[in-house]
Design a protein that fits this description.
Length: 311
């Protein structure tokens, strides 16, 4: 019987599935208690995390030193909180929940696009108080006929493109990891373009790339300035990819028509006066991949993969 430590939130039915076969410690707040987490990590065969636990430094050293830990289960897809090369060197497999939250992210992107293009869904307080801003919010844009630019054409980017096309959008895409003429673009009815062309032609740009050296600071002030006037930027990938201060400046100036930001350099994000009351800005606390259904899919996928690996 193996020892499994789960240090962040996991669907309790999936936890029970693991506990039926192995010795399980489940504490959704364990990642907040560094000393205890290190102690438990030194005696586990598998560790299951989300995005808050930093599997590097002291924690990775504790896992490696015991020689027991065989795998890290990641309840999500981003791996920037895990030192993957270090894990591999220590003989520890890293298993993400690839594809399990793609639908949740794709729906978030489509929803944000609809809300920001139309520009009419934030006037509830005014209407309820007796104002009638009909003229101000009657010039919104329809989604059909607009161009969506998808940067990063993995499973999430592809699903987002499919849903956008179903609503009448033209979709263009760029992925630095895919060769020119890769069949996946044509298979999804998407035009493959260069990065600069995508930025200049898109009415909406959505980011689906990992945080690596090549994407850090990808959307800085200069790149944001090269976007179409009135364009919308959506980031559900990771913080540090988009310069949020530059986004706010572009919104205040009117160059950008809207932005939805779900991920930040520091989470929770400290109070930021520049973002308060910023026009056409949607901020959410890193939840694009989280929904009732996606939490189920992610949890059960990782539970099954962990069981298969341990057996």
């Amino acid at each position: 019987m193996a020892r499994i430590v789960i240090c962040e939130f996991m669907d309790e039915r999936a936890v029970a599935q693991l506990a039926a076969r192995h010795d399980v410690l489940y504490d959704a707040n364990l990642q907040k208690d560094g000393p205890r987490l290190l102690q438990e990590a030194a005696n586990c065969d598998a560790l299951i995390v989300r995005n808050l636990t930093q599997v590097r430094g002291e924690l990775l050293a504790a896992l490696a030193a015991s020689g027991r830990c065989k795998l890290i289960g990641r309840l999500g897809v981003g791996l920037d909180n895990i030192d993957v090369p270090g894990c591999v060197a220590a003989g520890i497999a890293v298993i993400p929940a690839t594809g399990a939250n793609a639908l949740s992210v794709a729906e978030y992107v489509i929803t944000s696009t609809l809300v920001l293009l139309r520009g009419a869904f934030m006037c509830t307080p005014g209407v309820a108080s007796g104002a009638w801003p009909r003229t101000a919010v009657s010039n919104g844009r329809e989604m059909a006929g607009q161009t969506l630019g998808v940067i990063g054409f993995g499973s999430i980017g592809q699903l987002t493109a499919q849903k956008a096309r179903a609503l009448g959008m033209k979709v263009i895409a760029f992925d630095a990891m895919l060769h020119e003429g890769a069949q996946v673009f044509a298979q999804n009815g998407v035009f493959q373009v260069a990065l600069d062309e995508l930025i200049q032609k898109s009415d909406v740009v959505t980011l689906h790339v990992p945080l690596v050296d090549g994407t850090r600071g990808l959307f800085n002030a200069a790149r944001i300035a090269s976007m179409k006037p009135g364009a919308i930027l959506i980031n559900t990938s990771r913080g540090h990819i988009v310069d949020v201060a530059a986004v706010a400046a572009a919104l205040w100036s009117g160059h950008l028509g809207g932005a939805a930001i779900d991920v930040f350099d520091v989470e929770p994000m400290p109070a930021n006066a520049q973002l308060q009351d910023c026009p056409n800005l949607l901020l959410t606390p890193h939840i694009s991949g989280l929904s009732f259904q996606s939490n189920e899919r992610v949890s059960f996928m990782i539970a099954e993969k962990v069981l298969a690996c341990l057996n």
